[in-house]
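User: quick one, fold this
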Amino acid sequence: MIKSTEEAIAILKNSRLSELERDDAIHYLQEYPSPEGMEALVAALQDNDSGVRWAAGAALAQLGEAGLPALLRALCRPTEDTLLQQGARHVLHYNASPRVRQQTQELMQALKGPGSSVSTMEAAHKLLVQWQ
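Assistant:
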C-alpha cells in the first residue's frame, strides 16, 4: 500500500515495475493531488508504456482544473515529443471540467498538424497566463 506522494512518484517513475504497480501509483496521485504529483502525472504522458500513459492521462482528465497548470507548463517547453501532445489532447478532450474543455479549444487546435510544437507552446503559454 502506497503511503505518500513521494513513494507514489518513485513507483510511477520506475519503469522496471509492473504496469499494475505503476497504475496504483497513478491512482494514489489522483486521489491525493499535489503539485509534485501533477508534475509526475504529466511526465508519465511521455512514458514508454502505453498503459501508463493512458492511465496518467485519464487521471489528469479526472482532476479537471487542478491538473491543467502542470500540463500547460510542460507544453510551454520546446519539444517535438508527439507522446506529450497526444497525451495532452487526451487530457483536454476528456477533461472533467467543462471550463477546461471550453477554454482550451485554441490549444486543442494548436496540438494538431504540422508546426504544432510552436503553436502549442504559444497557446499553452497564453492559457497559463490566464489561469495563474
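User: anything notable?
Assistant: The longest helix spans residues 116-131.
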